[in-house]
Amino acid sequence: MSRTYDLVHRTRYSYDEPVTGSYGRAVLVPRDQPGQQRHAVEVTIDPLPADSAEHVDYFGNTSTYFAVTTPHTELTVTARSRLTVDRVQADLARLPRAAWSDVGRAVRPGGTLETNGGAHLGAPPSSDPTDGIGLVALREALLPSRHVQLSPEVRAWAEPSFEAGRPLAEVLADLAHRIRTELTYKSGSTTVHTTQVELLAQRMGVCQDFAHLMIAALRMHGVPARYVSGYIETVPAPGKEKLRGADASHAWVSAWVPGAGWVDIDPTNDAFVDERYVVLGWGRDYSDVPPLRGVIFTEGSGSRLTVSVDLVPSGAEPFA
Amino acid sequence: MSDVLSSPRPRADAGGPADGAAVTDRVAGDDWSWLPEGTPAPDAVALTAARRQTATLLDDRGVTYGTDAPGGRSRDWRLDPVPVVIDEAEWSALERAIAQRAALLDAIIADLYGPRTLLADGVIPPEVVLAHPAFLRAVDRLTTPGPHGLVLTATDLSRDPSGAWRAVADRTQAPSGAGYAMVDRRVIAQSMARVYRQTSIRRIGPFFHALRRALDAAAPAGVRRPQAVLLTAGPWSETAFDQAYLASMLGIPLVEGSDLEVREGRVWLQGLEGSEQVDVILRRVDSEWCDPLDLRADSRLGVPGLVRAVRAGTVAVVNPLGSGVLEHPALGAYLPRAARVVLGEDLALASPETWWCGDAAARSHALAHLDELVLKHTTAAQERAVLGWTLDTASRESLAAQILADPLHWTAQERVDDATSGADGGRPAVLRTFAVGQDEGYQVMAGGLALVAPSRQRVVSSSLGAIAKDVWVIAAEAEASHDPWLLTAADEPLPRQLVAVSPRTAENLFWLGRYAERSGDVVRLLRATVDRWYDHARRPASPGGRALGVLLESLDAREPASWARSGATPATTGRAAGQDGTPEQESTQRHLRSLLLDPDAPGTVAWSVRRMSEAAAAARDQMSNDMWLPLASMERALEEEAALERAPGSTTGLLPVLDRLLEALLAVAGIESEGMVRDIGWHLQDAGRRVERSLYVVESLSATMVTAQPENVDAYLLESVLIAHESSITYRRRHSARPDPAHVLDLLLSDTSNPRSLAFQVDRLREDLAKVPSRLSTDARDRLVADIAEIVAELDVRSAAAVLDGRRERLAELLESVRWRLRSVADEIAVAHFVHPTTSRALADSWGLT
After folding, report:
1. Which DSSP letter does residue B560 get?
2. Which residues on chain B are in Cβ contact (under 8 Å) with A291?
3. B848/A307 CB distance under 8 A
């Protein structure tokens, strides 16, 4: 089923003292890719930036640069887009059955992908055994990164999911399920500096933490995994009207399942990603694709940040 | 003792070459056999003299390495006058090999930030690059205009046991040392002049021409007269001297990140008058620190938006951002393969044998041979090397565990210095060579920078006290000239357009003027006081003794706020107000000595001289080379006297030191007035001097003349005041009688022909400030100066000298009204002209706000 959305993501900073310069970088333009077609997109910044530019980054995401050099006490970055999502949700029963340990053996340096072209994974000899991803990108998705450190604590937590010979697809579903059931979602319970070890100790976090935890578990078992930044459409409780601006930035996991390519799974909601999700971009972890980051010049120290996201079926009235 | 780097040659007394002679012969003693026939080798006496002269010449040029911290003293650069000597025949092969290696690294970096074919094809294991912290994804696909991405490379070479050269490290991030190599050559050309003149030595000057050409070639297309700058981390960076010296060699301004700004996708150098576009940035700041927006968010050394400007193609950064990845020691294992794939050639200059621990087989080898390998870890900001053979069993086991836990970041290398440095008492040594990209390939500096480890050091590093040597490549045929002074004239590129002085430089020059003047003022006041001390210290109640008391007070009289440029606290005098003469006398004596010599207390001469040197060093690219002579001489005079540790009560030695200081300070003033172009920088430096001297006049008169003294005390006191203001001779020429307060005030406040008077300073200050533009309003500044001028013009010395109830109240008011205005002028100058970096910080993160 395909759905067409209007998407508005607004970030507003208010400062106590004037800011004389604000240099920013945003990853707020949804990717245009199979399963998700972008029809129109516009990123506006208020005050009007003296300079702005767009480029495609290392991971293929669209990155927006802006520099506001007029003094201001409020900065608003608004990204609007219209897109159609016709992604088919992965079906556990139909995903390839390669065992997680075979995937690990295939990808690692000197592994079977290099030596026998992935034939053991069931790839036909003529096709690309990396599903078009390329061995370099797969190997990169195994490396630790700033927010994904491979610790004994994560290994111990992940162990029960990695039974010998278990198909990778099942491992993915199991990890997502365990995160959903064993950890509590609580807004504000972590910061960008919280580690996976701390997360496991407090058993409480937000979607970025859950994605990082699952990525760490996969990478340390040799499974290529990356971090996806995007949105999920929220559905109001029965009988309630949907609140404007109440949708959310979201983050989930993408793992390589040989024969199926990158498979997206959302540990926060214990589900494979479907047409309710919009992909902004991906990277090794959060630090590669924060929706917005920047440097400001100001004598003041106080600032307030509000974020509102509206992901609504096209035709509904977008919020102002 | 000879070095392990020079070309081996049979020794006359070795009885002809035998097996292994090439190695062992290098070690036994200084080898001068390369000298032309008939030239006697320098004897021990000559070498001792040369060592001493080398140290003095380095000192006189202000050549330093490293700093402890802001405010700390840099270490001296250590240079051995005996050069490393390499034959032309050996050098020409080495030169080709260095150029090939640079070309290979250039091709590799183009691939790593481009198609990454070398990774996809497995020529280099992807993890070597992808897990390296210096591989910067934010600069992927950025290209540099010009024939090469990598413009300047340095390669550190050692000889292996067979005498063959090995590249122990590649420096591609921001190579240092070319400036040291040049200054070393200039110093050695003098201290070893006799030998130097007898030898045909390849010149290194042309290398700097080539570098300047390469910077121009790197400029964005269409720029006709490229403006290049050298981006420094600041005067506290370890190689600050090297950076500043290189900048002045190249004739380009030395700038800090805060001097630059990205606007409209271009980089601008902020000047006092306005901004100039920058086309090429030769950076000495590591890539990661160059842009807090796209690279390290916590960097204060960079320029937000720089990556954007590079991507827009409006500026070239040299070496390109991200080039540090080539310093990865593990690459050594893959360069031979890469050379064949990329260049279709065999690698001429190999690394030591290398095992990257991310590779299972290599890791096994490394773990099995830990006790004979050098282990390098590559995640930390600084490369860490562990010498396996120096570890005990427990440390080795712990190292093995660290490697197994984090194999991607460990690299093992065979030790190179073994045979030459082990048994024979030779020391490990490294030859740093330099290559610069030209239209056709790379040009190699004909020489370089040799570093020899101090005794018992196993690692060669300047930060560990390595001693430098000049490197002489003996030319087969004499070049046109090898005179050191012709070399200066011929090899230094002419400066191009004069660049607007940056606010940071302006500030340093202003404070250089202030500290130079302040040092002189305190020196003069101390001289006048010490003079009275000798005659009257023992009779504090006598007229002369009472005058001395006032002078001593006046040394303390200046307000703390006026002493320090920022944040420093004033000298704690520790002077006890004892009733009985002895303790007070003794503590006062200590006080006089410490006012001269205490390096840590703001307000002392030693402290001001130090600040003066710092301000000069921070604006080194603007300084006359002559400036370092008097600065070095002052530091020496103070250090020598401080080292004497005289008895606390002694005033012995103060006057000779004060005289030496005064002589040097007069030299500084002479360089300022006769040796500097009258540009904005000069006017600011002079303005600093005028503000400071005005304050000195006002504050010393407040301390000595507001409280009226009996006539017999004034006779001594006013005489001293005139001496301290360099005006006693003028006074005596004009007035025959003993000093009269009104006449003294006239000469020191109102007389516009006296270069020591307040009126004279105010005139000069007005002239100076009129020449210093600002983008901001200078109204407040100019109004204050005009007010001071008016007060001085309307001053009636008779009424100012009038005494009521023992005080000159009118004078006090007048001096105070001038004093606060002078302070405000200094503040307004800072507001109008200096850089006041607004604090920058990262935008709050939206983590979890979902």
Report:
1. G
2. 846
3. no
Q: Give me the percent of chain B exceeding a pLDDT of 70.
A: 86
Contact criterion met (CB < 8 Å) for A297 and B840: yes
3-22 in chain A: CB under 8 A from chain B = 11, 13, 20-22
A18 to chain B, closest Cα gap in Å: 11
Closest in A11, A53, A136 to B312, CB measured: A53
Q: How confident is the model at residue B482 (pLDDT cuts 50, 70, 90)?
A: very low
Q: What is the DSSP string of A267-297?
A: TTTTEE--TTEEEEEEESSGGG--SEEEEEE
- Burial status of residue A91 (CB atoms within 10 A of its CB: 0-12, 13-18, 19 or more): exposed
Q: Is B40 helix (H, G, I), strand (E, B) or coil?
A: coil
Instruction: Say if CB B238 and CB B305 are below 8 A apart.
Output: no
Q: What is the pLDDT of residues B583-617, one digit of tens each?
A: 344 445 447 888 898 888 888 999 999 999 989 98
Q: For residue A93, give how far its alpha carbon lies from the nearest alpha carbon of chain B (Å).
A: 32
Instruction: Tell me: pLDDT of B26 over 50.
Output: no
Cα–Cα–Cα angle for A52, A57, A61, nearest 5°? 95
Strand, helix or coil at B232? strand
- Spell out which residues of chain A touch residue B133, defining contact as CB-CB under 8 Å: none
Interface touch A296/B119, C-beta < 8 Å: no
Shortest distance between the Cα of B379 and any Cα of chain A, in A, equals 12
Residue A87 in tokens? 């992604």
> Do residues A18 and A73 touch, judged by C-beta distance below 8 A?
yes
Asked if B842's CB is within 8 angstroms of A294's CB, the reply is yes
Per DSSP (E only), the strands in B401-460 are 410-414, 429-437, 442-444, 449-452
Please give the Cα distance from B464 to B238 (Å, whole number).
Answer: 12
Q: Which residue of B has its CA nearest to A205?
A: B848
Residues B408-420 have a mean pLDDT of 79
Residues A50, B263: C-beta atoms closer than 8 Å: yes
- Give the C-alpha separation, B43 to B511, whole Å: 47
B140–A67 C-beta distance less than 8 A: no
In angstroms, the first-to-last Cα distance of chain A is 28
Q: Are B694 and B517 in contact (CB under 8 A)?
A: no
Residues with Cβ < 8 Å from A163, sequence gap 6 or more?
A: none
pLDDT in tens, B531-577: 888 888 888 889 999 999 898 888 874 443 344 454 333 333 333 33
Residue B579 is given by DSSP the state: S
| Cα gap B596→B463, rounded to integer Å | 31
Comparing CA positions, the residue from B98, B177, B105, B172 lying closest to residue B327 is B172
Confidence bin at A300 (pLDDT 50/70/90): confident
Q: From CA B343, how far away is CA B326, in angstroms rounded? A: 17
Show which residues on chain B lie within 8 Å of chain A, measured between beta carbons: 116, 119-120, 122, 125-127, 130-131, 137-138, 140-141, 262-265, 292-294, 297, 304-305, 308, 311-312, 358-360, 408, 838-850
The ipTM (two decimal places) reads 0.95
B502 CB-side CA count, 13 A? 28
Which domains, from first to last, does chain A contain? 3-86+290-313 (2.60.40.2250), 92-274 (3.10.620.30)
Residue of B410, B254, B385, B390 whose CA lies nearest to B330? B410
Task: Tell me the count of A-B CB pairs closer than 8 A.
Answer: 140
Reduce the DSSP state of residue B630 to 3 states and report it: helix
Within 8 A of A186 by CB-CB distance, chain B residues are: none
Residue pair A251/A223 in contact (Cβ under 8 Å)? The answer is no
Strand partners, A252: A228
pLDDT of residue B582: 40
Q: Say how far apart CA A139 and CA A144 lie, in whole Å.
A: 11
Which pTM does this prediction carry? Answer: 0.88
**Min Cα separation B291/chain A (Å):** 10
